[in-house]
Each structure stands twice: as C-alpha cells, then as structure tokens.
Structure of Acyl-coenzyme A thioesterase THEM4:
Amino acid sequence: MTANNGSDAPEYEPLAQSVRRLIDATIRTEAGAGTVAAAKTHIDCAVEQLSESLMPGSFGVRDPVDGQPVTSGNVMIGARNPVAPPPTIHRGAGGVVWTEITLGAAYEGPPGHVHGGVCALVLDHILGATAHEPGRPAYTGTLTLRYVRGTPLGLVRAEAWVDRVEGVKTFAKGQITDSQGITVTAEGVFITPRGDRH
Amino acid sequence: MTANNGSDAPEYEPLAQSVRRLIDATIRTEAGAGTVAAAKTHIDCAVEQLSESLMPGSFGVRDPVDGQPVTSGNVMIGARNPVAPPPTIHRGAGGVVWTEITLGAAYEGPPGHVHGGVCALVLDHILGATAHEPGRPAYTGTLTLRYVRGTPLGLVRAEAWVDRVEGVKTFAKGQITDSQGITVTAEGVFITPRGDRH
C-alpha cells in the first residue's frame, strides 16, 4: 500500500468519482418514477459502454500492464472503486497511521449514523496499515472492536499505531473519533507472511 | 429489520440494481479514454436528473411518508443502497440467522479475496440480527473477528446464533464459510436499548 489512492490511469478516477455521486443520489433522490426511469436508461447505457471490454475477474488478480497499482480496485482505498471513500492514508511520527474521511449516506447503518461494520472496515484497514510494508501486505489475524457510542455520519478521523511486534505478528491499536471524541476503539493482530499466503 | 430487503417503492430498487452493475463495470472496465468519457457523461446526466429532488440528509433520518422501510438506505441490507449486496436475511430454527451472498469485485481487499473489513461488516450485521426485534434494533457493543484464512470473492454463507442473553445484552457467535469451510469466525455483544439510544 502506498500513500496515494492507488490509480495512475487518469480517466478511471473521475469516472469512479461520478459513480460515487450517483450512489449518493440513488439513495437520496425523491424524483418521480419518470425521472428515475430516464436516469436508469443513462446508467444502463454507461454500463453497456464500459462493458465493451471488461477484465475477466476482479481488479486485483488481473495482469498489471498499465502501471495501475493493485490496490486501485480495493473496497477501502481503491481510486477506481466507487464503494471506497477513498481515504488518503497519512503516516506520522512513531508509526501512527491516520486518515480523515467524510462518510455520507452510502455508509449508513442506524439512522444518521455510520454502520458499525463500516467502522470495522475502516479500522481493519487503518490498523492493518501499521503493519504493511511496500509490496508486502499484512493480513488480519484477529480484530476486536469496542463501540463506545454511535458514530454520526460526516467527518471522522481514524488512527492506529503499533502496540508491539512479535515475530510476524504486529499488535496494533486504534480508534475512530468525531468532533466529540472517541466513538469506536479497536485492537488487532496482523500477520506479515514470509511468503505469499495465497 | 425485516426479512425482506427493505424497499416498497418499486422504481428505486431497479435503479439501485443498475448502479450495482455500474460499480462492477467501473472497476473492471478496460475501455479506452473516449468510451470512458462517454460513459461518464451518461452518469453525470443521471446524477443531475436524480438530484432534481434530494432528501436533505441520509435516508434513515428522513420523514418516512411513503412506506419505504427505514433500512432501505442501509449500507448492508438497503435495497436502495447500491453499496449493499443486499442479502436476503433468513431466520432458521433455534434463532439461527443466515444469508448466502455473492461478493464480487466491489468488495475486494487482497487480490481475489474479500476485504477483511467487509467480512466484519457482514458478520456485524448477521450477528446483530440475532438480537434485533421488529422496530427495536440492537446496537453492537463489542465484536471480535478471527480470520482463519482468506475469503475468496464469490458465493459465501454467513450465519450467526445466540450464545446467551444477559439482560439487555445478547452474546452472539457466527462465521463465514465458503465451499471449503470456515474463513472467519466472530463473537459479539449486542445491546437492545430500553429506550431510543440516539
């Protein structure tokens, strides 16, 4: 994983950004059936156009011939994946990894709040990033989440740090905070395989 | 939470299904810049059309005037949320809750595998569902995930059951399996608030 969002193919990133706006509008529209049908026609046209040439599997397993990082399709940080927020991952002093992201309507669980599982997704990634080395990703062994209170939709900060390292295991801790303080804390063990795990 | 996917407004569900196909095509397309630009134009038109009337906040906090369930916008089970797979939640004998879902390219973490955080999202929801009562959702207190091996993209089964109940706390256990067996196990404590927590 690198500090950028994982895309070197300039046409795909604006496409994904448009689809992110579309996801939000799809959830929040109150337009009538006629307008919705017209919008659906546009979307189906776009799907047909983009499908004229599709890689056979997921993004990560394709043959990387064009310099796009393998993480471009990642659900959390992939610049090409419209599901990804995607956050910019910062690395601070003392091995701290942090990001600030706005989680909107697409990530809702309890009304007005981020789904607890999305908090888990964010924390899994941020805690895991403390153990990542370039070209040598770490895999989650265990992850424990403690939900202190609901996380309101909007701007959140996620951060993590290494508690200790034992052999191939990195023990990481982290948290999500909003303007009022901590909403979720996490502890995880991440494994850096000596070879290729898969 | 109900056993259906949370939508009674028939025009919005096919719209979300089209956007799900678009998300997959956006990640997997190998079309050239001209085709991508043409598709983006269609998408931006659809965004503009759907945005002619938008609810001001997220789906869950709006005034439900049209019979659509509050969960229609949910990131995991919302029929209107293109990020949601969305699974059909089954309830079996002995309080078992289970679902079978196909997790494709949009949910990728390690190449060819489901992101560990998406496994957490699925398990948070399925374990939580063991504690849900109609109109009285349970909130995640703690959740612990143990990753046995990578979860390949494709069809997975997630299931959960109640281990025990102590007052407002439901202790649930669960797992994700593929055709080869268990990939992730989970334990969680879910709180059913006596009043409205938010």
Summary: Chain A has a mean pLDDT of 90. DSSP finds three helices and six strands in chain A. Chain A touches chain B through 87 residues (CB under 8 Å). The CA atoms of residues 30 and 36 of chain A lie 9 Å apart.
